[in-house]
Structures are given as structure tokens and as C-alpha cells.
Design a protein that fits this description.
Length: 328
């Protein structure tokens, strides 16, 4: 097949064409699988995006777009544009991406399926205050829609109203996003990858091991733990394949598949969960079209399930093609 790997370029790399490492990994893998592969990186230029696609005429776009220009939510309209252009692509479409990126809407869909989630309140500048019941401190305050732990840090856990309102204001101002305050769920943290459409299957759970985390700070994957390689938080956390009794593993996987279905995720995604010591499994978020980098939790879990990287990438392609064949 003729496959175009579509990716974003942030403003720093607009001219250097330095892509996210996942781009060359996926492109190389697709080539090895026998496809004719091109890479299209766009910073925020719609005309360039359309022209690039018209020139390449791919049978399939492998969609690794995470933002568009400086718009961190731009991945959503890009999939809408692909739909309008009649181009087939991997992963979720605009509707599915919107649902899972809005952590408030996500909860409403989870509620219908009776899946547990932290109780919450939303503070939006445009809309009225919205809450899903009485909240108990401490609360965890994060942006409603931004991902990659943007806006999540040492101050995210708040113990009183003053600190809560301070975080809310900071998120609204700095990230131009509504703020979401959630009850803090103390417990083990798991990431469960899911693959599939008609019959989605969960991969084995990955656990975040916080053993080396500094004392006295809440054990959360904040922006330091995720991205700041020199920090104690980064060094103190690692993702490992979870060691679990079969029954618990099966329960985590069931919740993940139920959440994936509830959000209508397509092809692949990852569900972030917390497990309390009384056995409650809470969905923190659903990541449609999650990060596919070779050392990501998703790829790690796939490998543990016997899908090495080439087979994982091939599976994503096959799922996307089958899904779109069925629709036509
Ligand atoms: N209600 C909560 N209770 C406890 N910890 C939480 C809660 N919400 C978030 N966290 C912690 O913060 C981290 C990031 O939160 P979340 O996954 O919602 O944000 P994100 O920025 O969308 O992350 P990602 O990079 O996975 O897209 C979680 O992995 C978890 O460690
Ligand atoms: Mg997360």
C-alpha cells in the first residue's frame, strides 16, 4: 500500500523537520512491512496539508498528528479534514477524539456504563459551574482537555478552597482551558492498552512503579515525572509490566475495554486507571490514538502480549483498513 505518515511539527522544528521519534520508527517499520511510505510533516498550514496529500495520494494515512500549529487541540479538526478529503486514516476520528479529550464528557459516558471515575467539578470561563456531586478534599486539579500532563505539577493536589481556586485560575489563564477538579484517588496506577473495533482486546496492564519517588510528594505522573529527565520524579518512576493475580488483571482489562467502547475509540487506545486498596478501579482518562513510540507503555504491553513492534504497527494498519472497508 501507499502509506503517508502524517505528523505535526512544532514551531521550533518547523524548518529543521525534526519529527517526534515515533515518526521514523513507524515509517521504517511500515517500509519493512513492504509498504511504499512517505512522511508528511505540517506545522499549521492547511494548504500545505491538502497539497501534500493530493500529491502523495496515499491509500492510507498513518495518523500521528497530535496538534496543528500552536493549537494543541488541532489533531481533532485534522481528522475531520481527512474525512472531507475522503482519505482513509488510522485511529479515531474527530468525534471520538473530542469525546476522549474532554475529561468531563468522558465521565458522563463512563457513568452510563457504570464505570467508576473520580467525582469532579468543572470550572469553565464560558459556561456555568458544573459538578457531579459533593466533592471531598483533597482534590486534584488539571486542565479539562489538555494532555501530556500539561498543567499538572506539584501544586495540582489541593487541600482547601483557596488553593483550589488559585489552581483553577492558573489553568484557565496559562492553558486557556477549563479546569477540572477531581477527587484524588490514592492507589496503584495502571495503563491498559486496547486494540480493535468490533471486538476490542485489552493488552496486559502496565503499572507505574513509584518506588523511587521522592518522599513527601504525592505519587502522580506530573509533567516532571513524564518529561524532566533530570528530576527526582522522572528518575523515581518507571513503567513495568504489572504482576497481578489473574482475577484482578481480568477486572482491569474489562474496565479498560468497557471504557474504550463507551468512548467509541477506534483501532487503538490506552486507558489510564487507578486501583484503590478496597479494590475500586477508577478511570482517570481514555487516550484515543495514544502514543505509539517504541518504548511507550502501549508498545511495551503489545510486546508482552506477543505483538512485537512490526506486528503492532501492522495490526493498527489492518484494523484501520478493515474498519473502512466495512463502512464502504
Ligand atoms: N483524580 C486523580 N487522582 C489521583 N491521581 C491523578 C488524578 N488525576 C490525575 N492523576 C495523576 O496525574 C497523572 C496525569 O493525569 P491524566 O492522565 O488525567 O492527564 P494527562 O495529562 O491527560 O496525561 P497523559 O499524558 O497520559 O495524556 C495521572 O497519570 C495520575 O498520576
Ligand atoms: Mg494520562
Amino acid at each position: 500500500m501507499k502509506i503517508t505518515v502524517l505528523t505535526y511539527l512544532d514551531s521550533d522544528n518547523e524548518n529543521s523537520k525534526e519529527y517526534d521519534p515515533v515518526v521514523s520508527q513507524v515509517a521504517r517499520t511500515l517500509r519493512r512491512l513492504g509498504h511504499r511510505v512517505s512522511v508528511l510533516g505540517v506545522h499549521g498550514d492547511v494548504k500545505r496539508l491538502i497539497a501534500g496529500l493530493s500529491r502523495r495520494k496515499p491509500d492510507l494515512v498513518f495518523n500521528l498528528m497530535e496538534m496543528f500549529g500552536d493549537n494543541v487541540f488541532g489533531d481533532i479538526p485534522v481528522t475531520g479534514l481527512l474525512d472531507l478529503l475522503g482519505v482513509r486514516y488510522t485511529g479515531s476520528g474527530p468525534g471520538e477524539l473530542y469525546l476522549s479529550q474532554d475529561k468531563g464528557l468522558t465521565k458522563k459516558l463512563l457513568a452510563f456504563e457504570e464505570i467508576l471515575y473520580p467525582r469532579y467539578a468543572i470550572f469553565s470561563r464560558q459556561a456555568a459551574f458544573e459538578t457531579g456531586g459533593n466533592l471531598r478534599m483533597p482534590l486534584f486539579v488539571k486542565p479539562l482537555r489538555s494532555d501530556a500532563s500539561l498543567g499538572i505539577g506539584g501544586k495540582s493536589l489541593v487541600h482547601d478552597a483557596a488553593a483550589l481556586m488559585e489552581r483553577v485560575a492558573a489553568i484557565q489563564k496559562e492553558l486557556d482551558d477549563a479546569a477540572l477538579a477531581e477527587e484524588y484517588i490514592e492507589g496503584r496506577e495502571f495503563y491498559v492498552g486496547v486494540l480493535g473495533n468490533a471486538q476490542p482486546k485489552a493488552l496486559p496492564p502496565v503499572e507505574v512503579d513509584f518506588t523511587g519517588f521522592p518522599e513527601g510528594v504525592p505519587k502522580v505522573m506530573d509533567s516532571k515525572a513524564k518529561w524532566d529527565e533530570g528530576s527526582k520524579e522522572y528518575k523515581g518512576t518507571k513503567s513495568v509490566m504489572a504482576t497481578l493475580p489473574d482475577e484482578l488483571r481480568a477486572r482491569l482489562q474489562k474496565v479498560a475495554v468497557d471504557a474504550y467502547r463507551a468512548l467509541r475509540v477506534r483501532d487503538y487506545g490506552r486507558v489510564d486507571l487507578r486501583l484503590t486498596d478496597t479494590g475500586g478501579i477508577y478511570v482517570l482518562e481514555v487516550n484515543a490514538s495514544c502514543y505509539l513510540e517504541k518504548s511507550s507503555e502501549f508498545a511495551m504491553a503489545a510486546a508482552a502480549a506477543g505483538l512485537d513492534y512490526p506486528r503492532l504497527i501492522e495490526e493498527v494498519v489492518n484494523l484501520a483498513i478493515d474498519r473502512q472497508k466495512r463502512r464502504r
